[in-house]
Amino acid sequence: MYVKRNPLGYKNLRTWQQANEIFDLTERYVQTLPKFHPKTGQKMADTADHMLRSARSQVRNIEEGYSRSETKQYIDFLGFSKGSGEELLGDFEKCRKDGLGDIELADRAIFLSKGEGKMLHNQMEALQQKRLKDGAMSVNERYKLAKEEDVRRDEEFEKKVREILGK
Fold first, then answer.
1. How many domains in the chain?
2. Which residues contact 128 (CB under 8 A, 6 or more apart)?
3. Which residues have a Cβ under 8 Å from the Cβ of 18 and sit 6 or more positions away?
């Protein structure tokens, strides 16, 4: 289903705004990384480059998805953005664990990245529900969505059981 949108409307989205804030933080953070990892001797330029590409991808996928003519495509691009954000979060957490770079910047980026992932997840879920309500979702897609929800509930249940059992 085609949805007419303001072509620059993504700039009003909190997910896009926060992704840009994370990108800016990432640009500042990678400048504080040492040339080489103190324990492994690995060149940190590779890590810095990967972090910058992930941060940029997170922003650009929100923009590209917003410009798509179908809600399903938009959801797919939000998923790509979320994936890039998860990669970036992993890099920040690894650097933080290793005590590399400006720790305050890393902590801020980790905090924002976790929130960004949750916001993107919620945005994707809301758009899926809209598609379902509008009848724009095929039977196969509805089945897949229900199956994913079953898996999510099972994982949530197992997590709760492990917490109760202390494992």
1. 2
2. 75, 137, 145
3. 112, 115, 116, 119
Res 126: pLDDT: 93
Question: In the predicted model, is pLDDT for residue 167 greater than 90?
Answer: no
167: in domain: yes
Strand runs labelled E in 97-153: none
pLDDT at residue 1, as a whole number: 46
In the numeric block, which tokens belong to residue 122? 């919620």
Please check whether residues 58 and 108 belong to one and the same domain.
Answer: yes
Same domain, 167 and 125: no
Give residue 3's pLDDT.
Answer: 53
Rg (CA), the chain: 19
Domain limits for position 161: 138-167
- Tens digit of each residue's pLDDT (9 = 90 or more) over 141-150: 777 878 888 8
Could you tell me which residues come within 8 angstroms of residue 54 by beta carbon, excluding any fewer than 6 positions away? Answer: 26, 84, 85, 87, 88, 91
Give the global pTM.
0.80
78 exposure class (CB count in 10 Å sphere: 0-12, 13-18, 19+): buried
Q: Are residues 165 and 99 in the same domain?
A: no
